[in-house]
Amino acid sequence: MFERVVRRIRREYDRRRLKDPHWADLFEEDPSGEVVSIDCETTGFDVKKDEIIYVSAIRVAGGRILTSSAYNAMIRPESAAMRADAIRVHQLRAVDVEAGRPMSAVLPELLEFIGGRPVVGYWIDYDVSMLDRCVGRSFGFRMPNRRIEVSELYYELKYRKAPQGTQVDLSFNAIARDLGLRQLPAHDAFNDALSAAEMYVQLTDMKARGRTIPRDRGADVATAIAH
Question: How far apart are CA 3 and CA 145, in angstroms?
Fold first, then answer.
């Protein structure tokens, strides 16, 4: 809650300091109800030093995932070296991203694609933090879009009324398994953005219909006894 308050304050501060009116629409939430699922692959996992090397963004409109018009871009890092721990995750090497475009060319396109729509993702704060550095450096503000974290939606439907001490699993695989989603190859920006979009569609539909995700009652009982 505190972080969301801070983001709202920063958002208003950035709005008032906005130098280029071209980006003013980003600060007004799109009235269409559409959202954009995003995912980034990076040179490493330090949001202060590493850079984005691939980004995927997929619009979701009225429960429809618009994969045919998704935005995808390979990005050539400016200065950050590819870290071995990140390469092991996404399998992208320095040679693979050499043909990518500079972030200065990709970023305006990406912001136009997202517009004022809320952004959706799994671990969405990480992706937005990576993008914030780029947006700030290029345009002097931080992404003002409302964030929707799919693991928070999942928590609300499965664990909000769980007994104290219940073991909580908010992993990507746990969410996909409970929702019966197909297992796409992980740590690919497009696949991860698509999976997050599918999670969002199912979870918001379940919430609208008043449905919850069943827990293992046996595990709840065992946990309650142990505590």
Answer: 14
pLDDT the model gives residue 227: 38
> DSSP string covering 144-206, please?
---EEEHHHHHHHHHTTTPPTT------HHHHHHHTT---PPSS-HHHHHHHHHHHHHHHHHH
pTM: 0.89
Q: Per DSSP, what are the bridge partners of residue 183?
A: none
| pLDDT less than 50: residues of the chain | 218-227
Residue 17 backbone class (left: φ over 0; alpha: ψ -120 to 50; beta: rest): alpha
Which residues of the chain form beta strands (DSSP E)? 35-42, 52-61, 64-65, 71-74, 119-121, 147-149
Task: Return the SS3 of 59.
Answer: strand
Q: Tell me how far apart the alpha carbons of residues 62 and 57 are, in angstroms, rounded to a whole number.
A: 17
Tokens (6 digits) for 107: 């970023």
Long-range contacts of 122-128 (CB under 8 A, 24+ apart): 122/39, 122/149, 122/150, 122/151, 122/172, 122/175, 122/192, 122/195, 122/196, 122/199, 123/149, 123/151, 124/38, 124/148, 124/149, 124/150, 125/149, 126/40, 126/45, 126/47, 127/38, 127/39, 127/40
The structural domains of the chain, ordered by start, are 2-226 (3.30.420.10)
Give the whole-angstrom CA distance, residue 58 versus residue 197: 8
